[in-house]
Amino acid sequence: MGELARINLGESEVEKLHKNIGGVLGLVSSLKGADISHAEGGEVTVKNVYRQDESPHEGGEFTERILNNAPSKKDGFVKVKKIL
Amino acid sequence: MRIDLSQLTISKAHELIQSQELPARELLAVYLDNIKKHDGDINAFLEVFDDAYEQAESVDKKVKDGQTVDLLAGIPVAIKDVILIEGKTCSAGSKILENFVAPYNATVIERLKRKGAVIIGRTNMDEFAMGSSTENSAYKITKNPYDTERVAGGSSGGSIAAVAGQECLVALGSETGGSVRQPASFCGVVGLKPTYGSVSRYGLMALASSLDQISPTGKTTEDVEIIFDAIAGVDPMDSTTVSPDVIHNSEFIIQNLKIGVPKEFFSLTGSNEGVSDSVVEGVKNSIELFKSLGAEIKEVSIPSLKYAMETYYIIMPAEASSNLARYDGVKYGFYKSGTGMMGDYMNTRGAGFGDEPRRRIILGTYMLSAGYYDAYYKRAVSTKNLIKKDFERVFKEVDVLLGPTTPTPAFKVGEKTDNPVEMYLSDIFTCPINLAGVPAISIPCGFDESGDKKLPLGVQLVAPWFGEKRLFQLGKQFEIANA
User: Does the beta carbon of A47 lie under 8 angstroms from any beta carbon of chain B?
Assistant: First the structure.
């Protein structure tokens, strides 16, 4: 789970988490017995909230402001370790 | 001039500012002085902004030039450190964002600034809004102004304690499962969780996207109403905001208003296990007060409430694990190097997140993982729909619901930190509201005087979707009758 969540967990932490999470899973286990047969259905009106793909802002307008927070950057890009 | 801050409201402050009897700059100075004197005891603020005076002075200049300024102009507002204010640090109470500077204003901030409100600082909170006591902040613990050995509540403890401690006039917090109503109840102030979709979440750091709402707090219902009116409304930057079918209560008549008390929350005649005697008394007194105003009280039943906690503790961690995936040391925030890209993520997040985010992220990841998604998340979403339908049904029988906000008054610092499940149960009356998406308000209804310090108590009113006006009118009548 630690790897899936991309969090380095210490060994003693894993044990404590087992207990804590076990407690919460116990709390939520009663949901297994819930009768959800009437949960679906009902009218749902869907409307498109996407804006038109037009009038873009000037390229580079926000770059500096956004990159100010990046730990590692180069030439207007965020810099990371090799992916491929 | 001497002013009693505990009696000051937005309306009164506005009169003082507009008439120049007390300019905004001087009003601000009184609050900043209070913060200097007392905030060391309660730890409400993470930072007081150095441009606050500048904001106040620009209001005073307009007034001197003969302009009529907005009701909110010059009013000192504190903001929970999870709402972006351009150019200011925004940390979500976490070390992983300790030096993050917001590149833009949240919509609610834009709306407040346009009215001339003075944004005085950012307030303490449980890390990433995960908690019910503000003990999970990576920085400090916020104490209850009524008893500094007790918690202010959470996760918006800082904002509420700042209002209760006369360190600002009003504040913004955020709710996912009760994070403004619960501390409001603990600290004796008013807290509103608006209808999901009525206030823009653009610029609010997300915890659980289907539940989060920015929530105002103040000493009176009217003050909370004024803030809500200023920040609510459709926002093209948040596609989950909707234009409501406003419930028209042009003339509010409390006679024959039907108030429902859900028996799953509160028994009118039987025992209320797990709820403090003082809370029971507070709720019963509130019921009597509404009766005396002419309302009809009726016991109702919302059976699906018994699944609310479980549904919440599946949906919230699942959505949180997804929303917090972005904190990876790449675009912003704390960064710790590791072996390769994966190592970077593992080390950055491993070192940057506190205990509660780790717990909830792992829980959420588990519940969304292959093989468990159907059993947990999908099932919980179905139950959430059931709960929503149950509320729809009950609001055909009654106009408003009433019950306790919290099972007990404020608990002591450290009392629940070893047992997460016990901490989670303090939200038992608030989180079902977030699941249904309906609006709810917590209003002070008295004090618990059983111990050596008197502790505030709150009562909760719940209205149908977009029924905030109903809550405000009831709250105001309650305050007058309870005075």
Answer: no
